[in-house]
């Protein structure tokens, strides 16, 4: 319900309290919301919070923002730097 209203704070609060295994899903949906609005910084943070740095890296690669992709990889997924 809160996700549909883009009330991410409430959605996370409910997920943490009643269904902790869905917290990452809320963060992924939040990232998609921000990505649709081309707010890459907020989308990146949501992906990182979801423990999905690879999705943030892919997002930047698809946007041809290779410097940002490398920055995220260096900081959050050094095994992907090559």
Kindly list the characteristics that best describe this protein.
82 residues; mainly alpha; single chain
Write the layout of secondary structure elements.
Layout: H1 8-18, H2 23-36, H3 40-49, H4 53-62, H5 66-76
What does this protein structure show overall?
This protein has one domain. Helix content is 68%, strand content 0%. It has helices at residues 8-18, 23-36, 40-49, 53-62, 66-76. The longest helix is centred in the middle third of the chain and has 14 residues, at 23-36. The N and C termini lie far apart (41 Å).
Quick structural gist:
The protein has 82 residues and is mostly helical.
Structural class: mainly alpha
How many helical stretches? 5
The portion of residues forming beta strands comes to under 5%
The total strand number stands at 0
Shape label = flat
* Largest sheet features: none
Helix share bin: 55-70%
The ordered H/E elements are HHHHH
Number of domains: 1
Termini distance? 41 Å
Mean pLDDT comes to 93
Rg estimate, integer Å = 13 Å
* Low-pLDDT segments: none
């Amino acid at each position: 319900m809160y996700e549909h209203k883009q009330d991410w704070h409430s959605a996370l609060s409910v997920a943490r309290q009643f269904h902790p295994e869905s917290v990452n899903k809320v963060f992924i949906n939040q990232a998609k919301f921000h990505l649709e609005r081309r707010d890459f910084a907020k989308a990146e943070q949501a992906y990182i919070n979801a423990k999905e740095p690879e999705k943030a890296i892919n997002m930047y690669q698809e946007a041809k923002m290779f410097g940002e992709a490398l920055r995220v990889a260096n900081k959050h997924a050094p095994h992907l730097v090559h």
